[in-house]
Amino acid sequence: MLIDDYNRMKSIVVQGEVALNQATLHQLKVFEAVARHNSFTRAAEELFLTQPTVSMQVKQLTKAVGMPLFDQVGKRLYLTQAGEELVKTCREVFERLDQFEMAVADLKGLKQGRLRVAVITTAKYFIPRLLGPFCQRYPGIDISLQVTNHEHIINRLSENLDDLYVMSQLPEHIEITCQPILENPLVVVAPADHPLAKEKNISLERLAAEPFIMREPGSGTRKSVQSLFDEQKILLKVRLDLGSNEAIKQAIAGGLGISVLSAHTLALEDPSSHLTVLDVEKFPIERHWYAVYPSGKQLSIVARAFLEYLLTEGKQVTEQTAAKKISDLVHFGSSTNT
Ligand code: PGA
């Protein structure tokens, strides 16, 4: 397979000689990092190299390919078509090499290698807790965990940057394999002393009269809330956009407005935080977290071990710890300060 990838690299340039046999794996790694960060400086930081070294490596690789790999417009870098092809190929080659290393380690009876997981912001309330016991069981596995919003996860998925993804809203335009992990309901959160806190079955119209705090554009939480209100043709008064669930909780406690958050963001809430869940029609918005990867992707040994762990023991642990609290929260009347 590596031979196929290599041949594909060689055929990037139709005219002229591509002397990729002169390119080193190191140059390909440097190039991939520059392409991923869109920056020589950040690639140099990541790889603990100086910027001139990075530039030199990319220059030599460009010479070997025989075509420019980047265009620079002002201060911005853009991959050329050859660059795009090469970055795809690099990732495939690195993935295969990682898999090969893992397979050899597996033959030696070890689970070893790097696991790259990217999760949406709400999954940070359970995934890091599961990683502890997983790492203890497999000390040879290094983990890279990215926590980011829905839009960034979709971008990472389409670029095949990670082994596994945990998300709630599944992409429509990317073919994926997915398995449900846990419920991830969205609830309306307000200060515990809010006038609506004691009301039952509050209408969406009434809710829309309140100042709203929303997650940033690109957030899956925001998308779900917006679709519910759009379906009902009700306009929300958004007073504030905030890019973090924790910051939103602070803003609610500070009396800036109400918001919609995953119930899991409240599960570990400090009892003195004085937040409550409102009983609103059409809430909770029922959703799940899913473990996702692109269809056709051959999961590495390490990624398969983690997926299996996530869907069995990990799921059980999370259900035992969070599910009761979540079920109390979505059945209302429970403020986090009781
Ligand atoms: P978000 O996703 O961080 O993009 O809002 C969270 C979720 O969908 O639970």
In short:
By secondary structure, the protein is of the alpha/beta class.
Explain the overall architecture.
This protein has 338 residues and is an alpha/beta fold. The chain folds into 3 domains: 2-92, Orthogonal Bundle (Arc Repressor Mutant, subunit A); 111-183 and 288-325, Periplasmic binding protein-like II (D-Maltodextrin-Binding Protein, domain 2, 3-Layer(aba) Sandwich); 186-286, D-Maltodextrin-Binding Protein, domain 2, CATH 3.40.190. Helices cover 45% and strands 20% of the residues. The strands form 3 sheets. The chain has a 5-stranded mixed beta sheet. Residues 12-16 and 333-338 have low confidence and may be disordered.
| Domains, number | 3
The end-to-end span amounts to 59 Å
CATH fold-level assignment of the largest domain:
D-Maltodextrin-Binding Protein, domain 2
Order of helices and strands: HHHHEEHEHEHEEEHEHEHEHEEH
Strand order of the largest sheet: 4-3-5-12-6
Strand content: 15-25%
Uncertain ranges: 12-16, 333-338
> Which secondary-structure class do the elements indicate?
alpha/beta
- Overall average pLDDT: 87
CATH homologous superfamily designation of the largest domain: Periplasmic binding protein-like II
Query: Rounded to an integer, what's the Rg over CA atoms?
Result: 24 Å
Q: Could you say which small molecules are bound to this protein?
A: 2-phosphoglycolic acid
Biggest beta sheet attributes: 5 strands, mixed
Instruction: State the CATH architecture of the largest domain.
Output: 3-Layer(aba) Sandwich
How many strands? 12
Quickly name the level 1 CATH class of the largest domain.
Alpha Beta
- Helical segment tally? 12
- The residue fraction in helices comes out at 40-55%
- The outline comes out as globular
